[in-house]
Amino acid sequence: KVITINPAKPPPEFKAIGLKHVPAILHEEEGYDAVDDIMQYIDKKFPGGGLEYSSPEADLATKDFFSKFCFYIKAVNQDPTKLDQALKNLNGFLESALYSNGIANGMTDHQNENEIPDNPYEFLVSSQLTHLDCEVLPKLQHLRVAAKELKDYDIPMHLRGFWRYLHAGYTNPVFVQTCPCDQEIILHWHDRPETPKLSHKKHSVIAKRSQSFHIMFQSMLLL
């Protein structure tokens, strides 16, 4: 069972079991709210789930984009150059076909886009979700929704690998069922102290409208 909460105002039952951060897991009276602890517990409690992975290259390709987003989303920063580069690096990894047992051996930033073969995997290092995807996909969704609403930033449409990867997430029931709605993402980032602020009217409209999910694609991305 997945329960969404407001981290700024967690319900009493959340705090009563000693949890302070999200995401968190509660299972058989054991609770964890650190990502590494959650992953270790799942691997130990449910062995053979297929979430394990080993890919230093994937770790490297995904390590910068969220920190660049967190810096860019601040109200004082109007330059998306570093975020663009981090997304370009991730896209290069996703478009690379130089895989061996789920490990990429090179980036493709300087190749002609028309000559880049497709990643043979749906996800980062496998045809199924791994721990890394469970961490990266939600962050990409936060980036896509919040950056558009608060900074009018659009992820470049020519990043084919990126969009195909995000589409794989949108068509996976695990991600769809656990993905927060647009409103939760927007208001979460809006309420942070250094981010751009919506007008009172727009904030009220977003808070009151029915839940929606930003999963639109251009047809070219699905080819």
TrEMBL record:
GO terms for molecular function: chloride channel activity. GO terms for cellular component: apical plasma membrane; cytoplasm. InterPro entries: Glutathione-S-Trfase_C_sf (IPR036282). This is Chloride intracellular channel protein. It comes from Meganyctiphanes norvegica (Northern krill). The lineage of its organism: Eukaryota, Metazoa, Ecdysozoa, Arthropoda, Crustacea.
